[in-house]
Amino acid sequence: GAIIEPACALVSARAGMLRPLLKAIQRLEKAIAQAMDQHPDAAIFRSFPGAGPALAPRLLVAFGTHRQRFASAAEVAQFYGIAPVVQQSGHSKTVRVRYRCPKFGRQSFHENAACALKKEPWARCYYEAHKKKHDNKHHPACRALAFKLTRIYFACWRDKKTYQPDLYV
């Protein structure tokens, strides 16, 4: 009674909110797909391994259209927090993840790396080798793969060329 009835009303109210939300998400996804279709660099980003309809637009936005924005792949990797931060003093050296960066951008590269290792045999080999060297940890291996992919993606973006797997093997 006293607990179940209000809980049922709350669940019903929240369920009613989902339909408009799902419709709004569908409209946004359609708008993103249309914008991607019209973008001159769409073919480049769609060619990246593991970059499907969700990640290709995110990566395109991360790089942007102004080629002078980034002078090197290292700048991209540092800006988005993909490049590791090395702190060294005397005989001690630590390597850690970069914290001050656009988190959604870093997440986009990280997620793409996780998808790419399922599509590209060389990426899977690189990921597995990195995991073996570093305590079998997934996220550092994904970040290392994202760092490598960023250099490849930067070259494709800079030169306005699609990803060619044979070229990077």
Structural description of this entry:
This protein has eight helices and two strands; from the N terminus they run H-H-H-H-E-E-H-H-H-H. It is mostly helical and 169 residues long. A two-stranded antiparallel ribbon has the order 1-2. The model has no long low-confidence stretch (mean pLDDT 92).
Strand-pairing-aware structural class: mainly alpha
Name the overall outline: globular
How many DSSP helices? 8
- Give the DSSP E fraction (strand runs of 2 or more residues): 5-15%
Helix content: 55-70%
Distance linking N and C termini:
65 Å
Low-confidence stretches: none
Radius of gyration (CA) equals 20 Å
Spatial order of strands in the largest sheet = 1-2
- What multimeric state do the chains show? single chain
- How many strand units? 2
| Integer average pLDDT | 92
Order of helices and strands: HHHHEEHHHH
Write the layout of secondary structure elements.
Layout: H1 4-38, H2 42-46, H3 55-63, H4 73-79, E1 85-89, E2 92-96, H5 103-119, H6 121-133, H7 138-159, H8 165-168
Antiparallel strand pairs: 1-2
Would you kindly provide a brief summary of this structure?
The protein is mostly helical and 169 residues long. Helix content is 66%, strand content 6%.
